[in-house]
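Below: protein 1.
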Amino acid sequence: MLNASDLDRIAIDEDVLEIVPESVARNHTVLPLSWDETTIHLVIPSDAPGRTDELLTTLRFILDRKLTFEVAERSILETIVDLHYSACGSVIQNCPRTFLFRCNKRWVDLDRTDDSQLRHCGKCDTNVRLCKVGDELDAAVARGECVAYYDRTEAFLGIICDE
């Protein structure tokens, strides 16, 4: 079973987030990780014993592909699904903290790095760190890093950068 730190380190193919609709991922609490022409690799909730076959049958019908899967705790999976779909579809905008520029890119538009929580912005030629909680955000800002985050109350991704 995957834990929170495993899920934090997993690189997700952004294209698969477009193949598996957000409504399907949220309604069934599944996180798509990768895909090819015939198969999608997912993380499904571990609390579906006896219902796993039913869930996989439903998903095979909806997605029209073979499925492979791993399992994770539902509450952790809900958080990660929310983060990835919110980040994927959101435009990076100004936030209430100090900004010296406005970036119109989405998280998925930034160039990937070896670190799944770090992307590179060609517009400002700097790395941007994705933070999931306030403590991470505050620590990264204190280190002078550019930061992307999803604010549930404001429903947007923001970048903080002191450049």
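Below: protein 2.
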Amino acid sequence: MSHDGKVGIPRLATGVPGLDAVLGGGLPELSFNILAGAPGSGKTTFAHQIVFANAAPDRPALYFTVLGEPSIKMLRYQQQFQFFDPAKVGTAIRFINLSQVVLEQD
């Protein structure tokens, strides 16, 4: 509880220091957030940055994608960024492409 009697909401860091400061420490934990924007605006990169900032062996992350580019192509592109940690891929982070499942649904 804070000094004014309000209960604080735990925050999940985005991995972007300036944004985390503006958001009061990050996104509210257990919240549902939509990343929207035009193609090429950085939605996937931002989502990956959040995943890489928070995933750990004792707190693994799942990254689901639907009707996007293949995971290997996304990962190859993300390797250029400082946040990318290849040691987390397949261990602390699992990438799951649901495209085939969606396409099989009638």
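The chain has four helices and four strands.
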